[in-house]
Amino acid sequence: MTTSRCSRRGQKAGRRSHGFSRRESEGGGLCPGRGPIRSTYWWKGKVEEAEEWLLMMKTRRGLFSSLEKEIKALHPYEVPEIIALPIVAGSAPYLEWIQAETSGTSDK
Questions:
Q1: What is the pTM of this model?
Q2: Residue 42's domain is classified under what CATH number?
Q3: pLDDT, averaged across the chain
Q4: Domains in the chain: how many in total?
Protein backbone atom coordinates (compact mmCIF):
# COMPACT_ATOMS: atom_id res chain seq x y z
CA MET A 1 0.00 0.00 0.00
CA THR A 2 1.40 3.38 -0.99
CA THR A 3 0.12 6.65 0.40
CA SER A 4 0.54 10.24 -0.70
CA ARG A 5 -1.18 13.52 0.05
CA CYS A 6 -2.32 16.14 -2.40
CA SER A 7 -3.74 19.62 -2.23
CA ARG A 8 -7.14 20.34 -3.72
CA ARG A 9 -5.23 21.64 -6.76
CA GLY A 10 -3.50 18.25 -7.14
CA GLN A 11 -6.62 16.23 -6.34
CA LYS A 12 -7.78 15.79 -9.94
CA ALA A 13 -4.35 14.61 -11.13
CA GLY A 14 -4.23 12.13 -8.25
CA ARG A 15 -7.52 10.56 -9.25
CA ARG A 16 -6.68 10.58 -12.93
CA SER A 17 -3.33 8.87 -12.78
CA HIS A 18 -0.71 8.11 -10.09
CA GLY A 19 0.08 4.74 -11.57
CA PHE A 20 -3.41 3.80 -12.63
CA SER A 21 -3.03 4.05 -16.41
CA ARG A 22 0.15 1.93 -16.48
CA ARG A 23 -1.21 -0.56 -13.90
CA GLU A 24 1.40 0.35 -11.29
CA SER A 25 -1.47 0.54 -8.83
CA GLU A 26 -4.90 -1.06 -8.81
CA GLY A 27 -6.34 2.42 -8.90
CA GLY A 28 -6.34 4.91 -6.12
CA GLY A 29 -8.69 6.38 -3.65
CA LEU A 30 -8.99 9.81 -2.13
CA CYS A 31 -10.35 9.63 1.38
CA PRO A 32 -13.05 12.33 1.31
CA GLY A 33 -14.82 10.96 4.38
CA ARG A 34 -11.57 11.40 6.29
CA GLY A 35 -10.46 14.67 4.79
CA PRO A 36 -9.44 17.17 4.21
CA ILE A 37 -6.48 16.72 6.52
CA ARG A 38 -5.20 19.87 8.20
CA SER A 39 -1.42 19.40 8.07
CA THR A 40 1.12 21.35 10.12
CA TYR A 41 4.77 20.78 9.21
CA TRP A 42 8.20 22.36 8.98
CA TRP A 43 9.16 23.53 5.47
CA LYS A 44 12.35 25.46 4.72
CA GLY A 45 12.77 26.62 8.32
CA LYS A 46 9.18 27.78 8.85
CA VAL A 47 6.03 26.17 10.22
CA GLU A 48 3.49 25.75 7.43
CA GLU A 49 -0.16 24.67 7.39
CA ALA A 50 -2.06 23.16 4.49
CA GLU A 51 -5.34 21.46 3.68
CA GLU A 52 -4.56 18.12 2.05
CA TRP A 53 -6.29 14.96 0.92
CA LEU A 54 -4.96 11.46 1.57
CA LEU A 55 -4.51 9.29 -1.51
CA MET A 56 -4.17 5.51 -1.07
CA MET A 57 -2.93 3.18 -3.81
CA LYS A 58 -2.46 -0.58 -3.58
CA THR A 59 0.44 -2.03 -5.54
CA ARG A 60 3.17 -4.66 -5.44
CA ARG A 61 6.64 -4.10 -3.98
CA GLY A 62 8.26 -4.55 -7.40
CA LEU A 63 6.22 -1.68 -8.86
CA PHE A 64 6.99 0.88 -6.13
CA SER A 65 9.89 2.61 -7.94
CA SER A 66 7.84 3.10 -11.08
CA LEU A 67 4.83 4.35 -9.11
CA GLU A 68 7.07 6.72 -7.13
CA LYS A 69 8.47 8.22 -10.36
CA GLU A 70 4.98 8.82 -11.72
CA ILE A 71 3.76 10.45 -8.50
CA LYS A 72 6.80 12.77 -8.48
CA ALA A 73 6.23 13.71 -12.12
CA LEU A 74 2.55 14.58 -11.58
CA HIS A 75 2.53 15.95 -8.04
CA PRO A 76 2.40 19.72 -7.49
CA TYR A 77 4.59 19.55 -4.33
CA GLU A 78 8.37 19.94 -4.50
CA VAL A 79 8.72 17.04 -2.02
CA PRO A 80 5.52 14.95 -2.06
CA GLU A 81 4.74 12.38 0.61
CA ILE A 82 5.28 8.95 -0.92
CA ILE A 83 5.23 6.15 1.65
CA ALA A 84 4.94 2.40 1.13
CA LEU A 85 3.44 0.28 3.89
CA PRO A 86 3.33 -3.51 3.87
CA ILE A 87 0.01 -5.31 3.60
CA VAL A 88 0.55 -8.01 6.21
CA ALA A 89 -2.79 -9.77 5.76
CA GLY A 90 -5.96 -9.45 3.75
CA SER A 91 -8.82 -11.24 2.09
CA ALA A 92 -7.33 -13.75 -0.38
CA PRO A 93 -9.68 -12.78 -3.25
CA TYR A 94 -8.90 -9.07 -2.73
CA LEU A 95 -5.13 -9.64 -2.66
CA GLU A 96 -5.43 -11.81 -5.78
CA TRP A 97 -7.35 -8.99 -7.48
CA ILE A 98 -4.56 -6.49 -6.67
CA GLN A 99 -2.01 -8.96 -8.08
CA ALA A 100 -4.02 -9.47 -11.28
CA GLU A 101 -4.78 -5.78 -11.84
CA THR A 102 -1.18 -4.67 -11.33
CA SER A 103 0.26 -7.39 -13.55
CA GLY A 104 -2.12 -6.89 -16.47
CA THR A 105 -3.42 -10.48 -16.22
CA SER A 106 -6.99 -9.67 -15.20
CA ASP A 107 -9.91 -10.60 -17.42
CA LYS A 108 -10.78 -7.79 -19.78
A1: 0.71
A2: 3.30.70.120
A3: 77
A4: 1
